[in-house]
Amino acid sequence: MMEITETWIDSLAPNSAAIKNGRDLNKKGKYIELHRSEDGQVLFGLCAGSGKTPYAPSADFAIPDKPVMRCSCPSRQFPCKHVLGLLYAYAEGRPFTPAEVPEDLAAKREKAGKREEKKAKEAVTAAEAKPKKVNKSALKKKITAQLEGLELLEKLTRSLIRRGLGTLDAKELKVIQEHMKQMKSHYLNGAQIQLGKLFLLLSQKDGKEQAYSLAADQLAIIHAFIKKGRAHLTAKLEDPELALDHESSIEEWLGHAWQLTELKEAGLVAPAAELIQLAFTSYDDTARQEYVDCGYWIQPDSGEIHYTVQYRPYKAAKLMREEDSFFEVAIVPELYRYPGGLNRRVRYESMTSRALEKSDLNRIREHAAESFAEIVKSVKTQLKNPLADPNPVALLSVDKVVADGEGRLFAADRQGDTLELRDILDNGTVHLLKFLPEDALSEIAMLAMFHHDSLSGRLAVQPLTILTREERVRLLY
């Protein structure tokens, strides 16, 4: 059986309340029986509930990276608090006596095994079959509709620029909202989001001067999207295969949701990868009308910084499990990578975990960029593309953190080059540095988020995590 730790169990929970309730079941001694199968693959037991009949939670590790959780309770949460409590009991070292798997559970396991065999056979058959044909006629209609949508978007932005941002009234703002709805009907979800950002900026009642400056930047992004989107769609219509672009993020900007099979066919999958999360944040994206859970991870064998992201639409947020920080090493059978720049979005279908060791910290630190000048050059190259991520993340080798006469903090490399430390996200971290001991601010590796301030023209970074020789200090988690 895989190693079961509290951190791993926390990552399974649908929300923080389920974690608390699962732990409380243990504290209150609600588990009447705790057992494990003779082969160690199944944990099961009985948990006292509100009725006369106890609930029967179980965790089946026949496939270690895809454990199956079951319970006889009526809860709609998955896994429920009874299963979580069962796992916490095991992680805490409570005794699980060997016992034969109950008949009803054994029957369910047998049925599940047959389903897995059937899926495996179907997967082999699908792999051997001819590639699925694309409905080119329908795709051409969609591309034509997208091109028409880009024309509407261009007319709107030209009208806004001609009138001047400072003269826009409630009527013009309503026109922007109407165009947002039209973008969706033209299969341009990316355009809808960008117009939403523009609308929010122009709707601000305070800080008008800064809002107009940011709105001008937003219009530049929309203009670049129109130009690159039109060129891409036009070229796609001329391509007899109507192939997807696996190199850049333009497909996502145009509303394409990548399927794992597509990423695999494009060779964007790596086997047997390890990931270590260095930072995590959740925020409310009003323009998207979604909550966003974002984690930054390093692949210790290559040093690449990836990110995972989950979007939880407002309407469905209560039904979706909120992602959370992960403090161990994730062992992923298959790591899927999205097209992108310095930081690629990644996904995986299953994972196991192990404890983070000192040797892992040493491996991570070895990948830190020794020269700020080199990494800044790569960041600036990315920022020249308006459609690229405006806040790339990199691991820096920092000789020391210093302050100037005005109290501003800077990260300095061994060559004496410096980068100003400034809060970029709403979750500030720079002020936390004053609480760290001196040895945690010299000869360290720092995970930092870059940002180019269009008003000052300067590049700054926000510290997300600090790695000393002894520990990982997460400032954003």
UniProtKB/TrEMBL annotation:
<feature type="domain" description="SWIM-type">
    <location>
        <begin position="61"/>
        <end position="91"/>
    </location>
</feature>
<feature type="region of interest" description="Disordered">
    <location>
        <begin position="108"/>
        <end position="127"/>
    </location>
</feature>
<keyword id="KW-0479">Metal-binding</keyword>
<keyword id="KW-0863">Zinc-finger</keyword>
<keyword id="KW-0862">Zinc</keyword>
<dbReference type="Pfam" id="PF04434">
    <property type="entry name" value="SWIM"/>
</dbReference>
<feature type="compositionally biased region" description="Basic and acidic residues">
    <location>
        <begin position="108"/>
        <end position="122"/>
    </location>
</feature>
<dbReference type="GO" id="GO:0008270">
    <property type="term" value="F:zinc ion binding"/>
</dbReference>
<dbReference type="InterPro" id="IPR007527">
    <property type="entry name" value="Znf_SWIM"/>
</dbReference>
<protein>
    <submittedName>
        <fullName>SWIM zinc finger family protein</fullName>
    </submittedName>
</protein>
